[in-house]
Amino acid sequence: MMTPKFQNVVSTAASVAATVMLLRSFTRNYIPPEFQNYLHSKLSKLLSSFSTELTLVIDEFDGLTTNPLFAAAQLYLKPQEAPNTKRFRATMPSKSRHVSLLMDGNDEITDSFNGVPFRWRLVSRRGKSNFAVHFFEVRFHKKHREMVLSEYFPRVMKEAEAARERRKTPRLFTVKGKRFRRGGRKELWQGVNIEHPATFATVAMDWELKEMIIRDLDRFVERKGLYKSVGKAWKRGYLLSGPPGTGKSSLIAAMANYLNFDVYDLELTAVNGNSDLRSLLIATSNRSILVVEDIDCSLQLQDRLAEPKSSQPHRFIPRHFHSFPAPQVTLSGFLNFIDGLWSSCGNERIVVFTTNHKEKLDPALLRPGRMDVHIDMTYCTPDGFKMLASNYLGITEHPLFVQIENLLGMIDVAPAEVGEQFLRDEDPDIALNSLMELLLEKKRNHELQIKVPLTVE
Ligand SMILES: Nc1ncnc2c1ncn2[C@@H]1O[C@H](COP(=O)(O)OP(=O)(O)OP(=O)(O)O)[C@@H](O)[C@H]1O
Ligand SMILES: [Mg+2]
């Protein structure tokens, strides 16, 4: 409880004003060393003679901008976990899928750090023009003030950042058309929430491969220290290959949903040359997945044999600009930038290339060490089929399973086609019969092709 002496102190306008002023500067500067001294001396002068307890005031606004420390404290303090909280507020920030639980005005929460108790109170008052003014007061023994500045508040900031990441709704960014771009770097991309329902539970693929990918992603996000200690940029590259409809894009969505990472879908045909490409890449954020779909056809390899004197290696021309000489992105420029500057100026970056034709890729993309993990997505396997049947139809066995599994051993059918048949009817008998018909038809066509090979002279 507050001592009467202390109440006298905090009710003194001068001390509150001074504390507010001090905290404003503090949050503006994220505790630079020179300011710590200033804060210490001021606080000591004002308060140490009156009480053993210090009060720091954390305003919601620092001038016209929001105070990052206030926002961090809101995320850090968890009223739902405090035993005495009878009331807290729930909000759902726009563009978010997560409900935030916040402290209610004039409530108090006790926190402890390194065995030191801290009492936080959110104060709400009516200010001038009847505007609501909010600020946190945090109280602790004055002997801990140094520790508060150097350890406790940094921890509040860090935990709030982690909470923000956990609650974040992953977003999908695509390149903004040039004429829609305005000013800032972020404006190069336009984003929407990722609503793709794919998760690792819904993507049908070899389960060992799936487990391997999940383990690889887990290891990647846990290994900050290792990447740092070996001087490697914290980046991981995946090359997904496979026929259309085998789940490459679904797997990317599952990875994004699993990691809660944003996705930047880089359409290379929309990029005007290497410098445009660099600006776009620099504008991507940490903890994100950069995706280049159909890497084999979004850029076309100019026949290097046809221009043996060319000094520019691996020159690529966007398909859509093929008849125009000016805008060009070179593969080497792209890969060098991804491997070099771009990845070293960010953290937790994942790069994914997809292709339907691995055999058509430039050797530069396939060389060891370029893409860390190569994943081949295949036509539907018996295991994949069972998984789709369970996800789409809610069944794990059926008399038709054996026949279908036998047919799948002979016929190539993409998981997308299987899923399509399953969507035709909720009744498993009808859906499975529909799939059987498709497989039998494909088998007949396949046998016909073998008997009468089409030869065009
Ligand atoms: N392995 C899979 N597991 C579950 N669903 C799948 C799978 N493959 C495809 N599908 C279904 O088919 C749809 C299309 O698949 P997706 O876009 O992921 O294929 P893709 O390999 O990226 O194809 P493309 O090469 O044409 O881009 C998905 O929305 C999903 O519903
Ligand atoms: Mg795709």
Automatic annotation (TrEMBL):
Name under which the protein is recorded: AAA+ ATPase domain-containing protein
User: Which reaction does this chain catalyze?
Assistant: ATP + H2O = ADP + phosphate + H(+)
Q: Which SUPFAM superfamilies match?
A: P-loop containing nucleoside triphosphate hydrolases
Which CDD domains does UniProt cross-reference here? Answer: RecA-like_BCS1
Asked if the record carries the keyword Hydrolase, the reply is yes
Domain of life where this protein originates: Eukaryota
Q: Which residues form the AAA+ ATPase domain?
A: 234-381
Question: What are the boundaries of the signal sequence?
Answer: none
Keyword Chloroplast assigned: no
What PANTHER family does this protein map onto? BCS1 AAA-TYPE ATPASE (PTHR23070)
Which Pfam families does the entry link to?
A: AAA (PF00004), AAA_assoc (PF14363), AAA_lid_At3g28540 (PF25568)
Cofactors (names) = Mg(2+)
Keywords on this record? ATP-binding, Hydrolase, Magnesium, Nucleotide-binding
Quote the InterPro entries the UniProt record gives: AAA+_ATPase, AAA_N_dom, At3g28540-like_C, ATPase_AAA_core, ATPase_AAA_CS, Mitochondrial_chaperone_BCS1, P-loop_NTPase
Q: Which GO terms describe its biological process?
A: response to stress
User: Which family would the database say this protein is a member of?
Assistant: Belongs to the AAA ATPase family. BCS1 subfamily.
Instruction: Please name the GO terms that the record assigns under molecular function.
Output: ATP binding; ATP hydrolysis activity
